[in-house]
Amino acid sequence: MIRILWLACVICVIASAQEGSWTPLFDGKTLSGWEVCNGKASYKVEGGTITGTTAEGSPNSFLCTTREYGDFVLEFETRTDPALNSGVQIRSHRYSPGQMIHSLDGKQLTARKTPAGRVYGYQVEIANEESGASGGIYDEARRGWLANISSDPAASKAFKDNQWNRYRVVAEGDNIRVWVNDVPCANLTDSLDQSGFIALQVHAYKGEKPAQVRWRNLRIQDRGRHVWKPLWDGQTLNGWAHRGGGSFTVENGAIHAQSVDGDTRIGFIVSAQSFGDITARLKFKMTKGNSGFFLRAAQDTLAGYEVEIDDAKGTGGFWETGANGRKWVTGPEDNAAVMPGDWNDLTASLHGHKIVFHVNGVKTMELLNDTPGRLDGHLALQAHGSRRPTEIWFKDIEILVPAR
Question: Which residues sit opposite 38 in a β-bridge?
Fold first, then answer.
């Protein structure tokens, strides 16, 4: 009996160590470690809770942690006036003076100047039962909804009005998951921010009397962070092998890929290194033609996955090459997310059979269970042959890895 109890204790200790230690974000008595950003809403400690109260005429207000977090498990409880919208920011920041951002207006990317000091970033939604949105993820003051769970039959009913609701948020690399009252809600793949502060939001509000939102039992497990690691040295083609036709040269810190007159062969440069699960990104500037960013490609045949890059349409779409490849799988019909003649950000996340592509922060393709597909292979950059004259530039090729 004693031996059984001893083994049980050892197992509990090991499990606790693997899970990580919890650190309170709120001491239950003061707002030490927090600061108010934006707006005029008030934040007070009352009976072991943080109470946020709306102020007439105030924009969105935020109570922000004074330190930043990368990968973590965050837990808290919240009780919200059903008339008030709120949320908890994670991996968030404040705009610097003169900072410009691009966002998709439904047809094309448009640029806008941001107000200095404005809080922006991922927001874990706190709303009410009627909206069914609590537990989704909204990109505050930037791109809008990233994971709206209001159409999910179970997730949309997890939050309850006029009671304390338990939230659990797990952020690891480019994956953010949310549970409300133990019900799975958002499961987002997005790599735009890998660290930032946490903040409690009091939304702008108009009503006959002030509305309130409360938080308690805020705690966090700090699990380090992920960082972007360069895969290309920016000066040579070391670590990359030229295959087929085309010309690939390094000019001004970028790879200049183009067709060769009279040579109909498609050209590639292929990474020496092979990868399994991966989140990779690069910048491209297309002058003309058709190209692609290959992942999980076979070294001999280059059969694999291609993120389409085209001067006319489909950029950010999914093409599968090879004798048994599915060719065009899915993706956008237009190039709405592309800035023509400029540098564009392209990100590909492949983890197991979940595959997600983004162009300039816009999700262009998502497959949640791509079971027919490959699970490992090489990276490659493509330039079509002279039948489709192509000229394109690449730079800043990186992969997302845990910081050491």
Answer: none
pLDDT higher than threshold 70 for residue 349? yes
Closest CA to 46 of 62, 28, 23: 28
What's the whole-number average pLDDT of the chain?
A: 94
E-strand stretches of 237-386: 240-244, 247-251, 254-258, 267-275, 278-288, 290-297, 305-310, 318-320, 327-330, 344-351, 354-359, 362-367, 377-383
Containing structural domain, residue 397: 228-402
Calculate mean pLDDT across residues 63-72.
98
Integer-rounded Cα Rg, in Å, for the chain is 24
Q: Which residues lie across from 281 on neighbouring strands?
A: 347, 398
212 part of a folded domain: yes
- Structure token digits, residue 43: 């934040």
- Residue 371: pLDDT over 90: no
Best CA proximity match to 268, nearest among 245, 250, 287, 288: 245
Same domain, 167 and 188: yes
User: Do 130 and 115 fall within a single domain?
Assistant: yes
d(CA 143, CA 131): 20
Q: Based on the domain organization, do 119 and 215 belong to the same domain?
A: yes
- Which of 285, 289, 206 has its CA nearest to residue 245? 289
Maximum Cα–Cα distance across the chain: 82
Region 170-189: mean pLDDT is 98
Q: Is the pLDDT of residue 16 over 50?
A: no
pTM across the whole model: 0.93
> Are 145 and 56 a contacting pair, CB within 8 Å?
no
Residue 254 maps to which CATH number? 2.60.120.560
**Which residues have C-beta within 8 Å of that of residue 5, sequence separation ≥ 6?**
none
Same domain, 274 and 364: yes
pLDDT confidence tier of residue 19, bands split at 50, 70 and 90: low
CB 107 within 8 A of CB 84: no
- Rounded-to-integer distance, Cα 251 and Cα 268, Å: 17
Residue 87 shares a structural domain with residue 201: yes
Contact (Cβ atoms closer than 8 angstroms) between residue 246 and residue 259: yes
At 43, which amino acid appears? Y
| Residue 393: strand, helix, or coil | strand
